[in-house]
Every structure is written in structure tokens, then in C-alpha cells.
Design a protein that fits this description.
The structure holds two protein chains of two kinds. Chain A is α/β, with parallel strands linked by helices. Chain A contains twelve helices and five strands. Chain A is elongated and about 90 Å long. Chain B is an alpha/beta fold. Chain B has a seven-stranded mixed β-sheet, sandwiched between helices. A five-stranded antiparallel β-sheet of chain B has the order 1-2-3-5-4. The chains are: A alpha/beta, B alpha/beta.
Chain lengths: 305, 254
């Protein structure tokens, strides 16, 4: 083999120079938090000794590097030809690596997992999904409390009056909390999916994204399915549901009740286009879609009279 | 007055226990962690040892073992790769089986189930969670050393190819275990479950010495436990990373 094999494992970059069976390890300095050798994205993070070792290689030598980020970094730093290892090289190389002691390995993999989870959940889209689910839960709670309080009998001159007063204060706090959450949710939705938020309203946009599992999956959802996202009944060929979360979309109440199914269908088609734009080009097509939406509303209102 | 029923250790995997009760045999695993249970499963302590109920209805691996699975089962001290760990129901039992000296590398790609998996792993020492997509084994190969076994429950149209790609790169070599909980409904409605199983076994047989598949009915309809021992190195391929055949990846349906 006249190529040098580079395999990252944990915090260490292992180098198999041509002809040698045993690798040389270059460990990343222990920083705060986990560091993955495979994810080294800038030349400054490379261990100095590794760069020196690579500089000493014959000029013509190719590098076979496992791990895409590390491969790009090494290509940039050394100017050498860098290709992925063959499966056999990679597999045999991995088996020649010294094992990490079990306690250290456990702590390491968990810290990598915690960091990966943290950064995944900090993405605006995931924040939006979390907020949307929380808002839905809270909205149900507010409604439930409201109905329960209305069902309670008011008996003058009884301890119940005092109790109802205290309960009303708690409910008001819950509603304030809900309003604040809705505000955050709506501004997040407007920044994550501006076109969709304009067409169906920010709250419904957030629920659609949560129901689809993300903006990407929603962008791949066609209108017919988008119309039913969040619906609790089973879709069927003859008597399925006509609405999911789209029932609460903007301008739905401007349409006569017997035309709402038709409006939901048209709106879902527009929303699917909007979501696709938000997920891909991010160009602003909202004005065009809004004109079509409002024209459809007028059509549906006119037909009944 | 009833006398305590005896636990009998499985001859190949001593941390897997059977207990006769009436006309059926219960499966239990010896817990590596402390109370509370991971997902509300039954829990028993006896002679200072802790046991967790391994319910066939909750876990495809358990249903397979209950149905007479003859192939490899995780054993104490082994390292296993677990694809599609979700919240860690079955993965925690696999961690029980490998015990305190083993490791289970549990790969899951969905963020929210992964959060629960990570929380469980903090008190289940052998369970090591990895946030990643099983379609790209190269992306987490720097966290997983060569493993003695691979268990997969990925429910994707290309599940067999996913398993094989992981096996080629990450298994320790000939004789390593490979177990797949095959969901035939993910492979299309154009053929019966049995035909899907046959085609999966045919593709696996090129690289795996298969043990007889076990049907997981009635616990998990349309599922099979298939697998066996990795035979050895397949013909080399140019890349260690597979590509998805362009399947939709929406996470939930209405």
C-alpha cells in the first residue's frame, strides 16, 4: 500500500504510514467539552505533531482519510490528494486501533451525545416544534379550566365564593403565560417559515411544522396530505376527515360553513407551495399566494349568495 | 401459600432468565441499573439481584426469544451495536444482557426519543447513545469500536441494506452476531410478509450464516427475527457509506 491511512477515533487521529501495521496516535488536547477528531473543521485544531508527521511524507503520497470533515481539513492544510479509504482499509485499520478504557469511553460517548442533542434542539426549527407542542397543551389546559369554572355553581355567602376568587386569579396567570408563549411561538414561526406563516397564520404554521416533524418533511408534503395533518381521524377513501390543524387557519371563518372543506383544500395546496419555498429557496412568495388565497375566499363567499 | 418460582438462566446468555408460570414461560433480564424501571416494566429483587420483566409484547427481541429464536443473543461482556434504539425500551434490555463489562452503542436519529434515551443511559451504564442516521455508518464509526454483535430495529424500506452496510464496517469479523427485527410492512404492500422475509434472507445469506427466522406474531404482526453469524469479509466495495435509494423521510404521519 503506498498511501497513508488516516482514521479518527474518539479524541485521537490515527495515522497508518505506508507499510506499517501499527498506527501512530495523535490525541487532541483535552478541552472543555467533548472533541471528536472526525469533526475537526479548521486547520488550527489539528494536533501539531500530526501536521509535522504528514509534512515528512513523500510528496507524491496520497492520503486516505476516514471522516468527511477531517478529510476536507487535511486536504486544505497539506495540499495533498485526499480520498476516502476503501472499505477494507477502513475496516482493518479500525481493528488495529488500541481500545479506549471502558469508563473513559462511556463518559466520552455520553458527552458527545449530550452535545449533539443540545445543538439539534437549539436549531430554530426544533425550538419551534417544542414551542408548538407546549402551546397546544397549554391551550387545552386554559380551555379546560375555563369550562370547569363556568360549570361551578356560585352559592352566595359560602366558602365557594372565596375559592372561586382565588381560582380566577390562578386562571388569569395561566392565560397570561399562554399569551406570552403564543407571542414567542408566532415570532419564531414567522422567522422559520415566513411564507407559510403569512398564508395560514403563524400559529397554524407552527402546528403544521410540528405535525410533519420539521420544515423539511413539511416541504415534501403535498397539499392533499397537508390538509389532514394533525387530524385525529383516520383518513379513508369515502368518509374521511376534511380538516386537520388547517381548520384554524386564517380566513377560515370568513368562508360559509358549507364551503370550508373546499377552502381547506385550496388553502392546503397554497400552504404546501409556501412550505416548499420556506424549506428550499426561502424566496418571498407570500404576496402572490395571499392574492390567490383572498381571491378564493371571495369566490367561495360569492357562490353561496 | 405459594412458593417463589425459580429463575432459570439461559445456557448461552446467563443474564437472560426464564421463569415458568402456569402454562407460559416469562422472560426476565438481570438489571444493570437501579430502580425505578426504565419504561414501567415489572421489577423483582431476590438474593440481592435485580430482575426486569422482558415482555414479548413490548420488544421484538423478547418476542423472538419467546418464539424459539436459536440464533445469537447478547452475552455478558460483549459489545453490541443497536440500530434504531428509539427511547431505549429494548436497548436497555440488551444493555442488561451484556452486563456491566459490556457496551451497547445505541444509534437513533430522531431528536425527541433520543433525549429520553440519553436520560436513561445516565443510569444504565453499558448503554451508550449516539445521535445519528443508521444509513451513514461512516458518520459514527469514530465512536464505535469493532463490535461483537449488531441488533437492528430500523423499520425502513432498505433495512437490509442499512444492516449490511453497518455490519461491513463495524462488526469485529467472522463469527460476529447479526440480528435484525425485520418489519415487512416497511418493505411495501406488494408482497406477503413471508415473501419479504424470503427476499431479505436471500440478500443476507450472501454474507451471513443464517439461523432459522422466527415469526413474531401475534406480538408484532408482520415482523420476523432474522440473522445469524457474520460469515466473513464480503467483496470489497469502493465506499463504506451507503446511499439511501431516495425514500421519503417524513418522521410522522397524520
Amino acid at each position: 500500500m503506498n498511501a497513508t491511512l488516516v482514521i479518527p477515533f474518539g479524541r485521537t487521529v490515527y495515522l497508518f504510514t505506508a507499510g506499517s501495521e501499527r498506527p501512530t496516535g495523535f490525541r487532541l488536547p483535552d478541552r472543555r467539552g467533548p472533541a471528536r477528531a472526525a469533526a475537526i473543521a479548521s486547520a488550527e485544531e489539528l494536533p501539531g505533531a500530526l501536521v509535522d508527521a504528514l509534512d515528512r511524507l513523500r510528496a507524491a503520497e496520497e492520503l486516505h482519510v476516514a471522516g468527511e470533515a477531517l478529510a476536507r481539513t487535511l486536504a486544505g492544510r497539506t495540499g495533498r490528494r485526499v480520498v476516502p479509504p476503501t472499505l477494507d482499509e477502513w475496516r482493518l485499520g479500525r481493528r488495529a486501533l488500541p481500545p479506549i478504557p471502558l469508563p473513559e469511553e462511556r463518559a466520552y460517548v455520553r458527552s458527545v451525545a449530550a452535545e449533539a442533542l443540545g445543538s439539534a434542539l437549539r436549531a430554530p426549527e426544533e425550538v419551534l416544534i417544542t414551542l408548538a407542542r407546549e402551546e397546544e397543551r397549554l391551550e387545552r389546559a386554559v380551555g379546560r379550566e375555563q369550562r370547569a369554572s363556568e360549570a361551578m355553581l356560585e352559592v352566595p355567602d359560602s366558602p365557594l365564593v372565596e375559592y372561586l376568587g382565588r381560582w380566577a386569579v390562578t386562571r388569569a396567570a395561566l392565560e397570561r403565560h399562554h399569551r406570552a408563549l403564543v407571542e414567542t411561538l408566532e415570532s419564531t414561526a414567522r422567522s422559520v417559515a415566513p411564507n407559510l406563516a403569512a398564508v395560514v397564520g403563524p400559529r397554524v404554521a407552527a402546528r403544521l411544522i410540528a405535525a410533519a416533524g420539521g420544515l423539511g418533511p413539511l416541504g415534501r408534503t403535498r397539499g392533499a396530505r397537508l390538509q389532514l395533518l394533525g387530524s385525529r381521524r383516520r383518513p379513508s377513501a369515502d368518509r374521511g376527515p376534511r380538516f386537520g390543524v388547517i381548520y384554524r387557519a386564517e380566513r377560515m371563518t370568513d368562508v360559509p360553513a358549507d364551503r370550508r372543506g373546499a377552502y381547506a383544500r385550496s388553502l392546503a395546496a397554497l400552504a404546501s407551495i409556501a412550505a416548499r419555498a420556506d424549506a428550499t429557496t426561502r424566496s418571498s412568495i407570500a404576496p402572490l399566494l395571499l392574492r390567490r388565497r383572498d381571491r378564493r375566499v371571495e369566490q367561495l363567499r360569492g357562490r353561496r349568495r | 401459600m405459594t412458593t417463589a418460582r425459580r429463575f432459570e438462566a439461559d445456557p448461552t446468555s446467563p443474564r437472560l432468565l426464564r421463569r415458568r408460570g402456569g402454562d407460559r414461560t416469562e422472560l426476565w433480564t438481570e438489571a444493570v441499573g437501579e430502580l425505578p424501571p426504565v419504561y414501567g416494566e415489572g421489577w423483582l429483587e431476590r438474593d440481592g439481584r435485580r430482575f426486569r420483566r422482558f415482555e414479548p409484547a413490548r420488544s421484538k427481541l423478547s418476542a423472538g426469544i419467546a418464539g424459539g429464536w436459536d440464533g445469537p443473543i447478547p452475552r455478558p461482556g460483549e459489545r453490541w451495536l443497536y440500530l434504531g434504539a428509539a427511547t431505549g425500551t429494548t436497548a436497555s434490555h440488551v444493555a442488561d444482557l451484556v452486563g456491566g463489562d459490556g457496551a451497547v452503542y445505541a444509534v437513533e436519529r430522531s431528536v425527541r426519543p433520543f433525549a429520553r434515551l440519553l436520560a436513561t443511559s445516565a443510569r444504565w451504564p453499558p448503554l451508550l447513545p449516539i445521535l445519528g442516521d443508521a444509513r451513514t455508518p461512516g458518520a459514527y464509526a469514530d465512536l464505535v469500536p469493532p463490535v461483537d454483535g449488531l441488533y437492528a430495529d430500523v423499520a425502513q424500506p432498505d433495512q437490509v441494506e442499512i444492516v449490511l452496510a453497518n455490519a461491513r464496517l463495524l462488526l469485529s469479523g467472522s463469527g460476529a452476531a447479526l440480528v435484525l427485527a425485520l418489519k415487512t410492512a416497511s418493505m411495501g404492500r406488494d408482497r406477503t410478509a413471508g415473501r419479504h422475509r424470503d427476499s431479505a434472507e436471500e440478500r443476507l445469506a450472501a454474507e451471513v450464516d443464517l439461523d432459522p427466522a422466527v415469526k413474531l406474531d401475534p406480538f408484532h404482526r408482520g415482523h420476523y427475527l432474522v440473522g445469524g453469524r457474520w460469515r466473513g469479509e464480503p467483496p470489497a466495495r469502493p465506499r463504506g457509506v451507503i446511499r439511501s435509494p431516495g425514500t421519503p423521510r417524513g418522521r410522522r404521519r397524520p
